[in-house]
Amino acid sequence: MKNKIDFFNPLIVVVGILAFLAMGYIGSFNYRFENPLSLEVILTVIFACIVFAAGVLAVKYKINVESKELNFLSEKLLLALVIIALALQGLNLILLGGIPLFNSTLKANATTNIWRIAYPLFLITLNFLLAKYYNRKYLALILLGALIFGLNGYRTSVLGILGSSFITLYYLDKISRKVGIAFVALIAVGIMAVGYIASQSIATQHWTLNPLELIFYRAGFTLEVFEKIIPLAGTTNGHILSMIFSSGSPRTFIGEYVLKYTVCLTSTLFGPVMLDFGYIGLTIQMLFMGAFLGLIHKIKKGIGIGIYSIILTHTIIWIETGPTDIMIWFLYLIGLVYLIINLKKRGE
After folding, report:
1. Which of 73, 87, 131, 313 would you label with 237, given CA atoms 20 to 30 Å apart?
2. Mean pLDDT of the chain, nearest integer
């Protein structure tokens, strides 16, 4: 790899967490509610960062893994699956009867079973295609996917596609300085545009903030939710975790439990586990995530690059939204299976 500095090693998550904390602190002064973020919130976030970093460093120096290729994934197969995923999302929009990005009612129902198949299928096969059979013409699929899935009205889809593709291309040494700047600008504009347009389409809310202000407001509000969670730490006794892997809406439950009214809330990477298991749960989660990303980072070769890029990107997304999506845990599972395959081959 030509790049001497590995900008996207797992510790980038710590950088993302601290950046989000800084944005939320600024937002807490400009757009709030009650008081600026408490010292307890800041210290808890810093503690979580330290534990995560400990997990990364522990496996970095103590465990060796060799990356192996999965040769049955042909270029034609991956390209066909990418196209199928795009077609499924197109069908999803047709069945919804409109574009959720411009209609809050449609947006509330946009994450259908078709979407739950289409999005991870596109995300996985696109990154595998780029990592294993890179071709400049496939870059058009990144933009097309970000556009079509962005019409669902969720910033996370746009960030998931653009962010993971960017990291994959970075590890393939396909990112020049100009391309990198353009890509980062595209990600920033895409996230702000989708978030702003979606907020303006909510009939019951009237926003006067511009797209940039909205980002700082969201960071401040999300960290305020986490601040309200800390005194309730450990009181839900694993209920949120059980909801993630069964049925129901964990984010809506958090809204009802913490704010006492029905609202779908993001509560940071730390909120759900703090509610369920307190500081012990937070410690275990951050140690696991750090160690897991550290191990996957060791096998970033071929499709291993795609797997690592996808998991890292969505872990960064979780900094705001929280790990309450079973679909993203499925991506972790794919990483675990690939890791086991490589450990088994190394043993042989």
Report:
1. 313
2. 86
Of 304, 279, 261, 283, which Cα lies nearest the Cα of 49? Answer: 283
Query: Taking the alpha carbons of 246, 250, 252, 256 in that order, is the dihedral positive or negative?
Result: positive
Yes or no: say if 298 and 64 are a contact pair by the CB < 8 Å rule. Answer: yes
pLDDT score, position 133: 94
Selection from 182, 159, 169, 160 nearest residue 136 by Cα: 169
Give the Cβ contact number of residue 204 at 10 Å. Answer: 5
Tokens found for residue 221: 């509000």
Render 71-97 in DSSP notation, one character per residue: TT--HHHHHHHHHHHHHHHHHHHHHHT
Matching residue, tokens 């970000």: 146
Q: Which of 290, 329, 316 is nearest to 156 (CA)?
A: 316
What separation in angstroms does the CA of 345 have from each of 67, 296, 337, 348?
9, 15, 12, 5
Neighbours of 64 (CB within 10 A): 9
Judge contact between 209 and 217, C-beta under 8 A.
yes
pLDDT of residue 1: 47
Say how many residues make up the chain: 348
- Residue 95's identity, in one-letter code, is L
Q: For residues 273 and 296, what is the distance between their CA atoms, to the nearest angstrom?
A: 23
Q: Which residues contact 238 (CB under 8 A, 6 or more apart)?
A: 276, 277
DSSP single-letter state for residue 34: S
Residue type, 132: K
